[in-house]
Please model this.
Amino acid sequence: MTSRTPSQTSAEIASQPECWRRAADALPRHTGALPRRGERVAVVGCGTSWFMAQAYAVLRESGGHGVTDAFAASEFPPGRDYDRILAVSRSGTTTEVLDLLGLARTAGIPTTAVTADPATPVMALADAVAVLDFADERSVVQTRFATSVLALLRAHLEAEGARPDGVHPLDRAVRDAGRAVTQPLPAGLRDAEQFTFLGRGWTHGLALEAGLKMREAAGAWTEAYPAMEYRHGPISIAEPGRATWVFGPAPAGLAEDIARTGALLVTGSGSADDDLDPLADLVRAQRLAVEVAEARGCDPDRPRHLTRSVVLAEQQRG
Model:
């Protein structure tokens, strides 16, 4: 019996603890590009970058650093008044992000971009750029770049005294990510036919991202919701052979509600001393996406219908 060669995606997932350390170490070089305390900020991105934007927006605003909204780049509300637009783009070539940066320049709105590639158009369109080239990826499925961006932004909030109550310091998240890379996944989880991911506050963005990873890598049936919304309809999908994964502490009584459905409940980033930081818990969900993909005969390095960056022709732009 031959052993399977690890996928590029798996290798990039496993590299995240070191990438997060490097992101924190890089903060002094990028502080001047990041949002200032009190600025009204819009964070934008596409796909995974949009979900990281949502997580950061909640962290920043709940930490008292300033009003922060998150939008898919294609859905940015024209005419909305912001002091800064922060754009996240791994490739630096995504059409919707570049178009928005161009419009912001015309409108006189200061912009910052976080990217992995310093040789792309975003460098010329943004007023300031933070380059995390050490976190760039060969895989189409985005993992370590996005989480490294969130690590950088969390480190910045900590340095500014704006880490929200109840959110771990980043060094704890880094240590937990080291555990998450090797920690066994719950028995039976890989074979579930359906997955629902839940989160509250900043972890809702992580839940959305976990669902996206499962769809991209494995073509799996996944959904994601704010945890308190789960009882308002989505729980009807739960049954034996399906799984519900909660990022962060589960709302009171939810575990009992899920147990009555017979679905598998996955936790591990709640409030117990040995629980993972929720961002580290996302590493486990990324690993699950690869395992499910391989079990179903999919190649996680070459997901269906996807390319590393979406670059649209003129007639395809909204």
